[in-house]
Amino acid sequence: xxxxxxxxxxxxxxxxxxxxxxxxxxxxxxxxxxxxxxxxxxxxxxxxxxxxxxxxxxxxxxxxxxxxxxxxxxxxxxxxxxxxxxxxxxxxxxxxxxxxxxxxxxxxxxxxxxxxxxxxxxxxxxxxxxxxxxxxxxxxxxxxxxxxxxxxxxxxxxxxxxxxxxxxxxxxxxxxxxxxxxxxxxxxxxxxxxxxxxxxxxxxxxxxxxxxxxxxxxxxxxxxxxxxxxxxxxxxx
Length: 237
Prior knowledge:
Number of strands: 7
CATH class of the domain at 91-184 and 199-230: Alpha Beta
Shape: globular
Structural class: alpha/beta
Number of helices: 9
Mean pLDDT: 86
Distance between the termini: 71 Å
Strand order of the largest sheet: 1-2-3-4-5-6-7
CATH architecture of the domain at 91-184 and 199-230: Alpha-Beta Barrel
C-alpha cells in the first residue's frame, strides 16, 4: 500500500498469473491460452490447403520464440513430416546460442536489426548486443535470412545506420531481403491500465520515408522493401 493505494511491483510480478486470483477487484486477467503440441498442430493444419496454394507455411514468433524452443521443436518435427515450410522470427539476441539448435528444422529466419551502435543498444534496449553471432551461425548453416530493420526518425535513421545495414548485407550472402519497417504507434487495448515510462517516438511521414529511400539508393543496398513494396535502385545517367 502506498498513499492508501494498492500498488503492484511489476519487477516482481510482471506477467505473473497468480495476480488474477489475488486481486480483489479482478483487475488482472489472462489474454490468450496455453496449447499442447497436438492442440497447436491441429489448429495449424486447418490451413493446410492455404499453405499449399500460396507456397506459405508457419511462422513461430513471439515475444522471443527462442525462449520456447523446446515446445517449438516438438511442433516443428511434426510439421516438417507434413511438408510444412517453417519460419522463425527472432530478435537476434541469443546469449544462450540457441539458434544453432534450430537449423535442422527451420527453413527461413526473420532477424531483427534495430541498431548498429553498441552504446545505443545500452541506451534504448538495455543490454549489450551482437547480431553477428546469430548471423554467422545461420550463414554457416546456409539458412536464408530476412533482415528486419525498424526505423525510428531521429533515433536510428542515420547515415551510419544505413551504411551498417549495407555492410552487414554485403558480408552475409544468406541475407536474401531487407525489410525496412517504419515505426508506428499501436493502440493499446482499453483493458490495460499499466502506467509505465515507455517512450513513444515520432511516426515517419512520407517525406521522411522518401529520405530513407534516397539513403537506400545512395548506399546501393540491394533487395530492400518498405511498406511491403520493393525499393528499386535509381540509375544515374
